[in-house]
Specification:
By secondary structure, the protein is mainly beta.
Length: 311
């Protein structure tokens, strides 16, 4: 009996002792509650890129006329006294009046890198040197380019020629990279027997005719014969013509306004045609496939589309 009571007390003491164990003092609170980590904030979507501003259409150059070609207002001209033939290179003739030269009927500038600017010529001018330029000159006669590469004619008022207003020929060498732009070609005065053109081309590689006004005027004859051939006339001569750009010109008058010849890579775009032609608007003597672009060509007075006829 005593043993049984002792065993019971010993067991109870063991239980109480175990209840106070567990690594603490018995005064600690409940273990901390583990909260879940907050969800990350969503990454905002990038703002859409602003749409690019529309590109404005190019501003068309004004049509050349007597007010925006030739010698600018306010330029005082001095008298030029040079010879009819001048072979000097790097010659600059700026602000001069060129009278008829002694012993000649025209001026021939044969040197390289010749510049005629803000000048008035009473006779025709011939260029035969490379990289030459005629800019903002008034020429009573015509301009001829013979065998010269990299020539620029810009902003000139050319009139009163007895033959072609501009004549381009590869007779003495291959003409390449010729720019004829923003010129006013008008009022030819063809002699009896002439076949006058606004621009005649007899052999060229890479020619740009851009924003010129070429007005041959109403049809007429001299000495009973036709004397006005074309506003622009291409002839298959001196190695032929290639890489032709006829862009944004005003063309009027003559037998046919535009006469084409064989030659690869021809583009005829955005030209405006008057109504003074005699026999037809366009005479197409090119070969099939030569013309690679022809669009935007219209009658000037009505906007009526002008088609390039097939060869």
């Amino acid at each position: 009996m005593l043993k049984s009571r002792f065993q019971h007390r010993t067991a109870l003491l063991a239980v109480l002792t175990l209840a106070g164990c567990g690594g603490g003092t018995g005064d600690e609170g409940p273990p901390p509650v583990q909260l879940p980590a907050p969800a990350p904030s969503p990454t905002p979507a990038p703002a859409p890129a602003p749409a690019p501003a529309p590109t404005p259409p190019p501003v068309a150059s004004p049509r050349p006329d007597a007010t925006n070609t030739g010698v600018p207002a306010g330029v005082t001209l001095r008298s030029w006294s040079g010879p009819a033939y001048d072979g000097r290179s790097n010659l600059v003739i700026d602000g001069y009046d060129l009278p008829k030269p002694p012993g000649g009927s025209f001026y021939h500038f044969a040197g390289a890198d010749v510049i005629l600017r803000h000048c008035r010529a009473q006779v025709s001018i011939l260029l035969s040197g490379p990289r030459s330029r005629i800019e903002r000159c008034d020429i009573h006669g015509g301009i001829s380019i013979s065998g010269a590469a990299d020539v620029v004619l810009e902003g000139n008022n050319v009139h009163g020629s007895t033959s072609d207003l501009i004549h381009v020929t590869s007779d003495t060498g291959r003409i390449r990279n010729l720019m004829i732009r923003n010129n006013f070609l008008h009022s030819p005065e063809p002699a009896c027997g002439a076949h006058a053109d606004g621009i005649q081309v007899r052999g060229v590689e890479n020619l740009t005719l851009e924003n010129n006004a070429i007005d041959m005027g109403p049809w007429r004859q001299m000495c009973g014969d036709d004397v006005l051939n074309a506003a622009i006339f291409f002839e298959n001569a001196n190695g032929g013509n290639s890489q032709i750009r006829i862009i944004g010109n005003y063309l009027n008058g003559a037998g046919h306004v535009l006469r084409l010849a064989p030659g690869r890579d021809q583009r005829i775009v955005d030209n405006r045609f008057g109504r003074d032609e005699r026999y037809g608007l366009i005479l197409n003597n090119s070969a099939p496939g030569d013309i690679v672009a022809a669009s935007g060509n219209v009658r000037d007075d009505s906007g009526e589309a002008v088609a390039i006829p097939p060869p």
